[in-house]
Design goal:
Elements lengths: L1 E4 L7 H19 L2 E4 L3 E2 L5 E9 L4 E9 L2 H8 L3 H17 L2 H8 L1 H34 L4 H21 L2 H4 L1 H15 L4 H20 L4 E7 L2 H15 L9 E7 L4 H4 L5 H12 L3 E8 L27 E5 L7 H7 L3 H5 L14 H6 L4 H6 L1 H6 L1
Parallel strand pairs: 1-5, 1-6, 6-7, 7-8, 8-9
Antiparallel strand pairs: 2-4, 3-4, 4-5
Helix pairs in contact: 3-8, 4-5, 5-6, 5-8, 9-10, 10-12
């Protein structure tokens, strides 16, 4: 039974289901498998969808229930905010994070992610400069024709803001600046616990996790957190443990799998004391396994990074989690194809949940549908691949 926690992504169920179905077919061809995927069935409250996967190899067979946790309604409401509010709010939060030491700490932990989180503000600075050009031209023309000073400056300021708005809105699909600012705003608010609608959804999913563990006859229960879904997955798992402290001691083996994680964007914020305590709890949880998969090529995750010690958490000798697994995408993808997208940062980031083109111990679809338990795969990757 897999519970998939997506990151801060406005694309929802339909797109993720198509992605999973397409990538599963690729894996089936690569490994010579037969795989059948069912249609998604949504819950009455539309907060979750589930589908089944039946996979058969030469001498094994698995049946998987795949739950997709839905946040897209909450994310789309963020995207409906006027552009000027997003820009002002995002820039203010970046300044607060910088002067409070969060941004410098991120740069120290992983300079690539530091560049990534700074990128939308670099774009904003460039667009401000470009917007100033037509404003200056209008002011110059107004002066040439003898317009009064108040009219000249009013016209110039109006042109500046119209130009900036247009440059932010229309190239957004290429720049992703507004999207990344919205992501920063959400993360900051989440860390400060000012998003009660997200907390309610997390509590709902934590209860679902507990119910699956209590009632399902599955052998392995895996919570997958990709990207921002990593810290959401940590929260879901920690709150499930608060509901049922014996989670993992009864029923199926319970594993948290974080892929392309960006835990520090919450954990480094001083107000995130409860989140850091949840990390500490998972570090020593005796009946929960946690596998954290990282890649140097992905600028949107922290690599190399210890999710516990990197947050300044001393879990003591009882620490057993997470098992950190570094991977190289170039080992999983044909070289020509890899070179075609290696600088497309979002595409690289999603390779964690896409099919491999070469057999690899941490092929996402084989983790989900294969016959080898995730903890065993993490403990001895070479043996898992050989099997």
């Amino acid at each position: 039974h897999v519970i998939y926690v997506q990151g801060y992504d406005p694309r929802g169920l339909a797109q993720y289901y198509r992605l999973f179905r397409t990538e599963l077919r690729k894996s089936a061809v690569l490994y010579g498998l037969q795989a059948k995927i069912g249609r998604p069935q949504t819950t009455d409250d539309n907060t979750m969808a589930s589908w089944s996967i039946d996979t058969q190899g030469r001498d094994w067979q698995t049946r998987v229930t795949y739950d997709f946790l839905r946040w897209e309604d909450l994310i789309k409401s963020d995207f409906a905010v006027p552009i000027w509010r997003t820009v002002l709010h995002g820039f203010t939060i970046y300044c607060r994070a910088f002067f409070s030491g969060v941004i410098p700490r991120i740069w120290k932990a992983h300079w690539r992610f530091g560049m990534f989180i700074t990128y939308p503000h670099f774009v904003l600075l460039n667009l401000v400069i470009w917007s100033a050009l037509p404003a200056w031209l209008v002011a110059t023309a107004a002066s040439y024709f003898g317009a009064p000073t108040p009219i000249k400056w009013t016209a110039a300021i109006a042109v500046f803001f119209v130009a900036l708005w247009a440059l932010l809105k229309y190239p957004e699909k290429r720049t992703s600046a507004l999207y990344l600012m919205s992501d920063t705003i959400f993360t900051w608010q989440f860390a400060h616990r000012t998003r009660p609608e997200w907390d309610r959804r997390i509590d709902r999913f934590a209860q679902h996790l507990v119910e699956v563990a209590r009632t399902s006859d599955t052998e392995e229960l895996v919570v997958v957190g990709h990207s921002s879904g990593s810290f959401l997955g940590v929260e879901i798992m920690a709150r499930a443990l608060a509901i049922d402290p014996d989670l993992g001691r009864h029923g199926p083996r319970v594993v948290l799998l974080t892929l392309g994680a960006d835990l520090p964007i919450v954990g480094f914020i001083p107000a995130s004391k409860s989140f850091r305590e949840h990390l500490r709890q998972l570090a020593v949880a005796p009946a929960i396994d946690w596998v954290d998969v990282q890649s140097r090529k992905d600028v949107m995750n922290f690599y190399p990074f210890d999710p516990i010690a990197g947050h300044g958490i001393d879990a003591g000798p009882a620490r057993r989690n997470p098992t950190v697994v570094p991977i190289r995408f170039r080992d999983m993808i044909d070289l020509a194809h890899y070179n075609s997208f290696r600088w497309q940062f979002f595409r690289v980031h999603f390779q964690f949940v896409m099919a491999s083109e070469r057999p690899h111990p941490f092929d996402f679809n084989m983790i989900v549908c294969g016959p080898i338990a995730l903890a065993d795969r993490a403990a001895d990757p070479d043996a898992a691949l050989a099997a």
